[in-house]
Specification:
With about 170 residues, the chain is an alpha/beta fold. It is about 45% helix and about 10% strand. Helix 2 links the parallel strand 2 (about 30-35) and strand 3 (about 50-55).
């Protein structure tokens, strides 16, 4: 399977957000945007190939990355923690990292422990899932066996070479 580009969600398609989102979609990334009170920037992005999500839930569930470009802590808090906020709809392996969120010190002061717990738990969950997948996909080597006991026959291994003949 070819490496698919991550699906990007963008909230905050205002003066600054429109330019950022335009760069994302014109570089070929699948982009979903959440509507804005001024629809003309959204319409512009839709003409470039972006799609419009009708809710925070739809955006979060359909994207691998969600970018926020909003004005301040109250807007970030409402988007992240509101009744239908991002944290309620993001995947288990979501890691909430972003300069825009971290620089809102009132959010960090109020929710820092919760954000740190989410990062630690999602990181450990990701490591556990990776370890379980590798263990399930890789063949088990019996105790005491050497790596060469399990190597496939290739022209370099004796089992794949034709029998030797006596020189004439």
């Amino acid at each position: 399977m070819a490496n698919a580009l991550p699906r990007v969600g963008f909230i905050g398609i205002g003066l600054m957000g429109h330019g950022m989102a335009k760069n994302i979609v014109t570089k070929g990334y699948p982009l979903a945007v959440l509507g804005h009170r001024n629809f003309s920037p959204v319409k512009s992005l839709l003409s470039l190939g972006a799609t419009e999500a009708k809710s925070v839930r739809e955006l979060a569930q359909g994207c691998d990355i969600v970018h926020l470009c909003v004005t301040g802590s109250p807007q970030v808090e409402a988007l992240m923690l509101g009744n239908d906020g991002l944290l309620a709809h993001l995947s288990l392996l979501f890691v909430p990292v972003g300069v825009g969120v971290i620089t809102h010190l009132s959010l960090v002061a109020q929710y820092g422990a919760r954000m740190a717990a989410a990062i630690v738990l999602s990181t450990w969950a990701g490591l556990a899932v990776t370890a379980l997948m590798l263990r399930a996909l890789l063949p088990a080597v019996p105790p005491g066996a050497q790596d060469s006991d399990h190597a496939p026959d290739t022209p370099e291994t004796p089992a794949a070479l034709p029998p030797a003949t006596e020189p004439r």
